[in-house]
Each structure stands twice: as structure tokens, then as C-alpha cells.
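anyone else get weird line breaks when pasting these?? whatever heres mine. first is seq + C-alpha cells for prot A
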Amino acid sequence: MINLENVNKNFDDFKALDNLSMSVAKGSIYGLVGVNGAGKTTVIKHLAGIFKSDAGVIAVDGENVYDNDKVKSRMGYVSDDLYFFPQYNLKMLARFYRNMYVNWNTARFNELVELMGLDQKRRVGRFSKGMQKQAALALALSATPEVLLLDEPIDGLDPIVRSRIFKWIIEDVADRQMTVLISSHNLKEMDGICDTVGIIKDGKMLLESDLDELKTKMSESGAFEHSPPSLDEIFIHLYENHGKEVAENV
């Protein structure tokens, strides 16, 4: 479904992505993890068609993403650095999205907004950060995308709202095989929702693995006192050991 091959990206003298390759299967919930500056947001912005790579292939269902409106119309994207048109309220944004996405679902949007307790007539610029994140998620989910890209989607959200959002995402994956790529610092949340993880470091892919298989491998390695280890524990261990053990065995 999603395929990146040997992608490179430089910003002046900084190498943000270094020959990075990754693959996300259709209907998968893929967790992209790494420390700040590892390249997670850069990967997602390439997939969203915001950045153009210096080299390599970035494709969804075999089609290049950059400058491809047809592919982008099948994607939902929630950025970590949210931006809304200053004078727009939620109702106006819904109308804007309806004109962009052929599978826009007005009934679902109204339901999500009501459950989140958001005022459709209030300018989104006056929402709190948490409310703005909820608004962005409601818009993205109501676009009924085939691919959902989420960059730090739960920042600023209370536990009840987080639980609801993940429930909606899981239902969409189960009902219509939506493909999800999530970048987050909250590895405990990722541990409970993702089936596949990619660990990125210094713009390089340290490893990709089915999460259950990775936990099994790490348990068998004897690196942990208990079994199975959490994604949090695995992540710290791999960063400290540069992924050498798992790269040889997974």
C-alpha cells in the first residue's frame, strides 16, 4: 500500500532522511517511532505530498505521491503543527473538505463533532490546542480516507477523547481496510493499537517488524527480565544498542 524506497532528503547541510526504505501493508496500523529529530515528521510530510524527496521512490498503491491530487484525495492527514484558515469555523471547514474529498461523510462529521462537544459555529482559531486537534481528527476521519497519516495525533487530548479516537480508527481499519501510519512519542498508546512498528534513527530505518514478532524475538534474546517486553522498553534497548541485535535476528 505505502512504499518508500531509498529516500533521501537534505535541508541545507542537514541530512533528514538517509536512504530510508519502509513498507506499510493495506489495512495495517503502522507505528513510526523515534526520538525528536529522527525524521518521523519528514517521512509523513513526504507521504502527504508536502515535501519532495531529493532521491528515492514514495508511492501509494504504486503511484507517486508528490504533485498527485488523485492520490492525495484518498488520504487523511493530521499534522503536529496544525493550521486553520483564520476566519473559518468548523462548518465552513466541513464544506471545504466536502469539496476536496469524494468520500466525505457529513453524517459522520456531525456525529464526531457532537461527541467531541465542539461548536461548529465557533472559529477554530479560538479553540484550545486540544480542541483544534479534535477538530482536525474529526475532519480527517470524516473524509473516509483509504490512508490516514497521523503525526502526534493525541497530543493535548484527554484520555476519554483519545480512547474514542482510537476506537474509531480501529473500526475503520476493520470495516474497510483503512491503512494508518502513526507517529507518536506515546509508546504506551502505540503498543495497544499498532500491529507493525518502524524504528527510525538519524533519518535511517533501524528496523521494521510485526510488533508481536518483535516482542517474541526480544523475549528470546534474554535482554529483559520479564516477558514480553513493552514497546517502550524495546525502543530504549534498541536505541542504546543501535539495533544490532534485532537487525541480525528479525
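and prot B, same format (seq, then C-alpha cells)
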Amino acid sequence: MERELAEGFDIAHLTRDFLDDPFPTYHALRRHAPVKTMADGSVFLTRYADVTEVYHDAARYSSDKTVDFRPAMGETPLYEHHTTSLVFNDAPYHTRVRKRLMPAFTPRALRALQPRVEAVVNDMLDDIAERGSCDLIRDLASALPVELIGDMLGIPRPERAPLRGWSLAILSGLEPRPSPDQVARGSDAVDEFKDYLRSLVARRVRDAGDDDAEVLSKLIGPDADGEALSELELLHNCIFLLNAGHETTTNLIGNGVEALLRFPNEMRRLREDPGLIGTAVEELLRFESSNQIGNRRLTVDATLGGANLAAGTYIHLSIGAANRDPAEFPDPDRLDVSRAPNRHLAFGAGVHACAGMSLARMEGRVAIGKLLARFSHIELAGKPQRGGRARFRGFATLPLALR
């Protein structure tokens, strides 16, 4: 049965069962087809060692998606966005843009930001406490990163309502096989976001000097070397900042709390020893990785995982499978809030490792830690609804009763 599951897997034809719980399929692939060739010639990797090798060799495994995204997206605003943001580009463009973003994520910057994170979480938990129930995704997991990225981009609070909808629509276009409707909705969201950002940038230029710490202010104008982003580069990397910062944190908090509810002994351990919150967040990132699938294109002929691959081969990196690989993680299907070491790949690795990983970790520690400290009783108040996506694993709704 397991071998048949591996042999029948094709990323172009995913079932609802897979989207709800991909891990049995990941285990089958790792055992029976760890370098699995799809019908379209692409390859799906599930072993930790193979995925790690690809991440750490940016020369042979390219992140550029100008070729790969064109068939599904065509010449659309969605294609323009995903081939302009830094995540789907190689050096030197990737290096140049990443360098401009990194000052916002230094340890010093995050220490300065933490009181703001704690204040936002406390306010949200106050609202939840008054009601005694919540949809964790709506009321905390997605609301928190939208507030913080809104602050970073200098978006006035009354203007933040469309941000989550735009982010979800744009990221849905990154599914392994996006539908025409997903491409159309993603393109509309890109156009609407770009129009809004043009207005926002114009206001920021007009009011220059109001807040030198804002990320948007850092992206506008020349850098220390006198180089400036083009208008499209500026707009699309602001969109990328929202999407990357929003999706990872939302899924970390939602997936994390739901996993703790499934493993009540681990929740109890964390309540009894709040000092475990750091290793707990790392374990939650490993156990239910926010981003389940990455992609690269092979630039030269190579041997990977014992398979000979030709230059041009498109490679799917199964982060979710690698993070449950028993060769790296003993008893990988068990949640262990004190697991160490824990070299998970939830944020990727190498030169393309997530720039905002430290911020996401801090948001997860604050949100989950304060939630458990505030409420002694947390239980499901209805059936959670998964987001129904393969690349980004999270919940659309997660109803809870708390006291």
C-alpha cells in the first residue's frame, strides 16, 4: 500500500486527503521514491540530506523563476510580481535587495521591536478574553503580522484591511498547479496593491524624515553605494515583505497551537516550564512547517540522491517531508517541545534562508507563550478548516474556546 502511494504521487494532481495530511505520502516517498520523477519531468525530493544539499548550492540550483512561472501565469501582474521579488531571483539582484532589507531584522532592531509585539498580542488577548472564544487565525495569528508589517511599511492602521486578502490571493498563485482563477485573483491583488503602494510611497517621499526606522524609508532612494531600486523593484519587494512576513507567522501560530492541542502532554510541559518556549517554537516549525514546498532549477548536469539529473530539471523541495525525516529527527512524528538539536528547514537554508526568520520566531514565542500563560483552558470550539494549499500549510479557521 505504501509503495503504491509513492508510485501514484504526482504534484500536478493532489487530492484533498493529501492537502489535509501530506505526511503519510511524504513517508512513502522517502522510503520508496526519495527522488521522484513527475510526469512533467520535474523531480520531488523528500530526504533531508538531499533538500539540504540543494539549499546550500545556489550555483547549481537556481532560484530564478522567469522560465518556470510563465506557462501557468503568462504575462500577468502575478508573473511580474513573483519574478521581481527577491525570493525568486539569484545573485546579484537577490543580494542587492536582501542587503537593503536586513537592517530591519538585526538582533538590535528586533529587541527594539519586541515591546511593540508584546503590546499588540496583549491587546488581542484582552479582546479574546472578553468573548471567551475566538477564531485564532482571524483574531491573533493573521492579525499580529499584519500589524507589524503594516508598521514596517508605514501603512496607516485604517488602511490595513485589504492586506491579508491581497497576500492570500498572491500566494495562492504559487501552488504547484495554480488554476486560471487563482492566477486572475492573484493578478488583481497585485494591481490593487501596487496602486496603493504608489500612493503610500508618494506620501512617504513627501513626508521624508518622519520615521527613519521604517523599512519603506530604507527602500526608497539610493543605498550606501548610490544604487536605487526601480519603481517596480520597490513595489514588488514591499509586496513580498508583506506576504513573507504574514504567511510564515500566521501558519506558525495556527499550526503550533493546533499541534499542542493534539499533544496535550507537550502543552502541559510548556505551561509548567515556560522557559521551553524557544525550543517549542523550533519544534512547532519543524513539525508543521508553514512553507511545505520550495523549488529550484538545476543549472548543470548533476547527481543528486543517487539519481542522475539533467541541466534544466525543475526540482520540488519537500520541506515538510525533510522535517519529518527519521534519518535527521528521531521519532519525527512525535511533538517534543524540548527537542534538541533541531536543524529543521522551515526557513530554508543557505543564501536564500528567510530574511525575516528571527522576527517570525519572536512573534511565535510571544504569541504562543502569552496565549498559554493567559488561558489555563484552551480547547477546540468547532472543526478547524485547513487552507487547502500544498505549498503553504496552515488553517483558514481555527475556532477555540478559552478561559
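btw re prot B: The mean pLDDT is 93. The first strand starts at residue 35 and ends at 37.
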